[in-house]
Amino acid sequence: MAYQLFGPGWSSCGTWTADRRTNIIAYQLDLAWVLGFLAGVGYMGGEKKLDPLQGLDSHAVAAWIDNYCQRYPLQKIADAAAAFLTAHPR
Q1: Where are the domains of the chain?
Q2: What's the CA gap between 18 and 36, in Å, rounded?
Q3: DSSP state of 3
Q4: Model-level pTM?
Q5: Distance CA 21, CA 15 (A)
């Protein structure tokens, strides 16, 4: 990674999936981290006009991350957020 990473982004996708099922508070923190990451990209989008959250709500993002994390449980939540960005550059 080319940036400093703190918080739930360091956790694995397996943790995301487990939190989603059994620990709503931890899951809300995981989701807040992803949404903050993506909002930050939108804020810094500058001339490229990147806005990965355009036209989406948190449920749509969570569902996309759910699918990614089920496929790649050993990846980090930050990797899932980066993959979302690649798939939704808008």
Answers
A1: 24-87
A2: 21
A3: S
A4: 0.90
A5: 10
- Residue 12 phi, psi (nearest 5): -80, 160
Please report, in tens digits, the pLDDT of each residue of the chain (90 residues total): 577 788 999 999 999 999 999 999 999 999 999 999 999 988 887 666 788 999 999 999 999 999 999 999 999 999 999 999 999 877
Report d(CA 61, CA 16) in Å as an integer: 13
Task: State both tokens at 47.
Answer: 């001339």
Angstrom distances, CA of residue 28 to CA of 16, 24, 25, 44, 85 = 10, 6, 5, 24, 20
